[in-house]
Every structure is written in structure tokens, then in C-alpha cells.
Amino acid sequence: MVLLRTLVLLHLLATAYATQLRARNANLPRPPTVPPVPAPDIAVYHVATGAVLPPLNTTYYFDQLIDRANPQLGTFKQRYWHTWEWYEKGGPIILYTPGEENAEGMTGFLVNRTINGQIAQQEHGATIVIEHRYYGETNPFSDMSDKNLKYHTIQQAIDDLEYFAKTVKLAMPGGDSVGPAEAPWVLVGGSYSGALTSWTMVNKPGLFRAGYATSAVVEAIVGFWEYFEPVRQYMPKNCSADVEAVIAHVDTVLKTGSESQIAQLKDNFGVTELTHVDDVGGALRNNLWDWQSLEPSTGPNATFYQFCDALEVKNGVSAPSSGWGVDHALSAWGGFWQDGYLDNLCGGQSIADCLGTYDPTNPLFTDISVGNDYRSWNWIVCNEVGWFEDAAPVGMPTLVSRLAQPAYDARACSLFFPDTFPAGSSPVPRVAQTNAAYHGWDVHVDRLFFANGKRDPWRGATVSADAHFVPSTPEQPIAVSDGFHGSDLATSNALVDPTVLAVQQQALRAMHGWLQGFEPTKQGYAEEME
Ligand SMILES: *[C@@H]1O[C@H](CO)[C@@H](O)[C@H](O)[C@H]1NC(C)=O
Ligand SMILES: *[C@@H]1O[C@H](CO)[C@@H](O)[C@H](O)[C@H]1NC(C)=O
Ligand SMILES: *[C@@H]1O[C@H](CO)[C@@H](O)[C@H](O)[C@H]1NC(C)=O
Ligand SMILES: *[C@@H]1O[C@H](CO)[C@@H](O)[C@H](O)[C@H]1NC(C)=O
Known about the structure:
Layout: H1 2-19, E1 44-45, E2 52-53, E3 60-65, E4 75-83, E5 93-96, H2 115-123, E6 126-130, H3 154-167, E7 185-190, H4 192-203, E8 210-214, E9 221-223, H5 229-234, H6 237-256, H7 259-269, H8 277-283, H9 286-289, H10 303-312, E10 313-314, E11 317-318, H11 326-346, H12 351-355, H13 363-366, H14 373-385, E12 386-388, H15 406-416, H16 431-438, E13 448-453, E14 478-481, H17 491-496, H18 498-516, H19 524-528
Parallel strand pairs: 5-6, 5-7, 7-8, 8-13, 9-12, 13-14
Antiparallel strand pairs: 1-2, 3-4, 4-6, 10-11
Helix pairs in contact: 1-11, 2-18, 3-4, 6-8, 6-11, 10-11
The chain binds 2-acetamido-2-deoxy-beta-D-glucopyranose (NAG) (4 copies).
One 2-acetamido-2-deoxy-beta-D-glucopyranose binds near residues 57, 58 and 59.
């Protein structure tokens, strides 16, 4: 047991570095970011001529308009990366943004390690990765105070894609005459950027010849309890049974327990410093959030599975599907937290800073510097999309404490952005407006390929949601694999999961047909251009 715990700790410490780059809070909803796909910075050759191309990590800068509606406001530098390994004249331009994160190092999305590069390889296209405004170093302002976030909207992000496509002069030969009227552009996105793909094709008809949207969270939803449903459905049964049992007990103690019972519960998890009971209940979501980083290629050592093993394997014996029951599971969960999990989660921060969500002086809320992508993401959450990942409604099984409710998460909006959401204002994101503007689940556009994974926790906001049926049609196909969040983006996942391979192959066939039909002068968009 000691050996096992040591190994678990070593593994957790090895992954700690990645999560502690910036002060963050581990008790607020996770962004829907898809796993990154890096590529080595090795020389790339133009396949047709053998010419040596610039390294994939060469950064290009585009002069983007701060406000499309008010061009006099000027421009800012938008970063992008670009290669033309497979390009031949007439080929498509494949554009991808990772969305809510720094786009540096996303070079795998330029080459055939991803579906992007596979499309380029098949269709002799060129690839681009562009950084979304207000993430990484792409920012119109030198800090992200409330007033400077004014131009951080979904619509501005869509307008950026349009202005970029119509204006950019690409470094490749002939790159000054491949606008969307002259060449077919394909927009690719995953998760938030998958939704952005759908929303852009709704908002700018004809701009992109085709789209590929994986795990696209097209429907904005305030209380997104469905996030945890795929986790509950696909995790080991004994583990879900025990998590439900522990959470029911935790809620009883936190709601009706004596002070000493509550103190004992906090001690169990090593979070004595937390003063608000909903922070205690909310924090236990972390083990379920870990599901989001699983991929078909993930081995049994993934943090999520380590958690279930910690609860369900006792003296080398696995629990039956009913679990071991609350007594063992509660102490095993506490042991898991105190044996490395909590240290890794908090990366050197105090428990109060890491898991407390009430202190307005917490660096999480006060750090307005450029590159604080989590702040930037929360601006979109609080204003336009919601997706608060909370407890299931009463009467349904829940893996999450019922103290974690949308109002609990939305409260953070006032702490992040006090000038926009004054204290006590009970912010509610404008999801109805978002869905009306960009059609959410009711999207109907031609040549948009949706890919989803059965085990994706975000599936409930996609066109493959259990709660909302969207038909798959030849012009707007929906292909579902057994994968997780955005699993079909990475080529490597197809090697381990044939259902992911099938999705990629279906997409490549669809793209081939759709791109064949492109005619530069007759394209609808050419006629609409200003
Ligand atoms: C690209 O990567 C190489 C090798 O890692 C590095 O030496 C170089 O500085 C990088 N260039 C840029 C522009 O980041
Ligand atoms: C991916 O691209 C590389 C060149 O960058 C090529 O050597 C390789 O064969 C391609 N992979 C596949 C499966 O076509
Ligand atoms: C019980 O949990 C273990 C450890 O996570 C897992 O390997 C096993 O498949 C689970 N069994 C059942 C019946 O859920
Ligand atoms: C997984 O962990 C076990 C021990 O817990 C170790 O023996 C094994 O090498 C690990 N596998 C991987 C792929 O890290």
C-alpha cells in the first residue's frame, strides 16, 4: 500500500508542473478545452517541390480590427501559425483556433497529427492555427480590466475569423490570393471552438466552404448538470455507486451536521481551511472533472482511474458493482486527497486560495494580466454561455454535491468582474440571446460535419445531447465515436479506437465531396462580399 501510494504520488507530482503555471482556482467550473496536440519543431518540406518550409513554430502576426463595427478604433496583433506542406494551387485553406487558451505550441494542428492536417494532406490544402482574441498574447489591450473586455464577445471572435480570411496575405507562394472567394476555406474547431465553428457558419453564410466541429458545445446552458452524466454512465459502476453514497453523506453533514461533524468531514479531505460549506461540497467535483482529460489512448494510470482504484480496490480486491459503501469510500477518498491529489491540484497554493471562492482578494480574481486565459474564459461564461457544471436535479442520481448550484458558481462572476456584475447582483449569463443569435441545437447549415464522443462530458451541450435530438443529414452529418472530449481531432486516437478512425474517415469522405464542388467565381460568398 505504501509503495502504491508512493507511485501515485510520484505520478501526480510529474503532472503537477502543467497545472501550476498560473494561480488558478480549482473550485470553479472547468473550461471545455480539448487536449493539445503538439508536434516537434522539425523541418517541414513542401511535398510537391521538396522546398524547405519555415519551422512550424514560426509565429505570424495579423493586424486584426479591435472592433469590426468601429474600424477607426484601430488594430491589434493576432498571432497565427501556418504551413503549406501539402499545398497545391486551388487547394483548401484549413483554419483552426484552439479557442480559450494560448495557441502557442499547437503545431500538431498544422500537420497530419490531427484531422486538420489529414484534410490538408488529402486535399492539397494549407493549414493555419490562429489565436483567439483575449487569449495567450492576442489581446487588444495591455490588461483585462472589465472595461477592456468590452470587445471580448462571441460576435467579435466570429468577425475576426471573417476579417482574417478576407484580408490575410499568407506567407506561402500565391498566399495573397486565396481569400474565401478564390479558395475553399474549411473551419475546424473542438469544444468551444467547435461551437464557434457552427456559430460562424450560421452567422456568416458562405464564408467557409465547409466546417468540422468536434465536441461542439453549440447550446449555451446556465445550469449544465448534464456535464456529469456521461461520466456517471461510463465510469466503473462500483465507483459511481460509492461516489453517490459519499456525496449523499457529505450533503447531509454539510447541510444538517453539527459543527464538529462538519469539522471532521473537512479533516477527512484535508480542507480544514475552508470556511464555506459549499466550497467543501463543490471541491469534490475535481475528481469527476478529471474525466475530461481522458482520451482513448489514456492508460489505466490516468488520475481518474487512480481515484476509482483508491475507492474500490481494498487489499487487492475490487468492490462488487454496488461498491464498498460509504464508510470505506469516504475514508478512501479522503486518503486519496491527502496522499498527493490535493497537493497536485493546488500546486503550492494555500487550500483557501485554491478551493475557496469567497475572497475578493484571491489572486484568481485580482490578476487581470494579459495571458490569464481563465479570467478571459470566465468573461464569456458569465456573459454569454454559462455551462455551470453542477449537481443533478433532486430525484436524479448525482455525483456532485447539491450545494454546487448555478448560483454558487455564478457568484464568482461578481468577484472576477465587479464593475460589470456588482456584488450581490446574482448574475445570469444571457444564454437565450446566444442561442437565438447562433441557433444552438437548431443549427441547419450546409457542409458542416459534427463529430462527437459518447463518453464526452460536454456531450449534453452538443448536437448529440441525450436531452435534444438533432438529426444527422448528408449536408450536416453527425458522427459519434466511443471517444471522449474532442478525441477525433488527434490522428493517434484512431490507432487505438476504430470508432474514432471511422469518424475521421467519414469526415474525410464528406470533405472531399464538399470541396470538389467549390467554384471560385460562382461561390455565394463572392457575390455577398462588400
Ligand atoms: C522553434 O523551436 C526551436 C526548437 O525548439 C527553437 O529553437 C526556436 O527558438 C523556436 N522558434 C520560435 C519562433 O519559437
Ligand atoms: C504524415 O505526414 C508525414 C510528412 O510530414 C508523412 O511522412 C506521413 O506519411 C504522413 N502520414 C500518413 C499516415 O500519411
Ligand atoms: C470496480 O472498480 C475497479 C477499480 O476502479 C474496476 O477495475 C472494476 O471494473 C470495477 N468493477 C465494477 C463491477 O464496477
Ligand atoms: C502505471 O502504474 C503502475 C504502478 O502503479 C506502474 O507499474 C506502471 O509502470 C505505470 N504505467 C504507466 C504506463 O505509467
